[in-house]
């Protein structure tokens, strides 16, 4: 089988949720969706590790959830819209989640978004105008943890 050309992966600081990421994160995202019901949220909060062990996630995915490390969860196939259920279960707003992923406080993140969002500088496709950075890690200085 010939590998697909994925030029869209060259967006610095962005993990693209494509079919490959979807396959990688299937059970992680299914776990997150399970948190839509109150009994499952209560079971998870009562014993996070035991609840995670019921899911066919990788150990690395389970540890990322236990650390509430959203950037790592995304790298491991998590989709932010599913991960929002984890954040809500842990009592975090979407703004708190996004702030944690970018190294900002909730207030700093809110102010940035109200002020027009993040600068496009350094966020272009690699090679576009010759100015883009070559890494694919989140550009914030935050650790992505919700703690």
SSE arrangement:
Layout lengths: L18 H6 L1 H9 L3 H9 L1 H5 L6 H8 L3 H6 L4 H10 L4 H9 L3 H9 L33
Please provide a written account of the structure.
The protein is mainly alpha-helical. It folds into two domains: 16-90, Protocatechuate 4,5-dioxygenase, Chain A; 93-124, no CATH class. Helices cover 48% and strands 0% of the residues. The protein is built from nine helices and no strands. It has helices spanning 19-24, 26-34, 38-46, 48-52, 59-66, 70-75, 80-89, 94-102, 106-114. Helix 2 crosses helix 7 (80-89) and helix 8 packs across helix 9 (106-114).
Q: What is the radius of gyration?
A: 16 Å
Helix content percent band: 40-55%
Biggest β-sheet strands, sense, barrel: none
Q: Tally of extended strands? A: 0
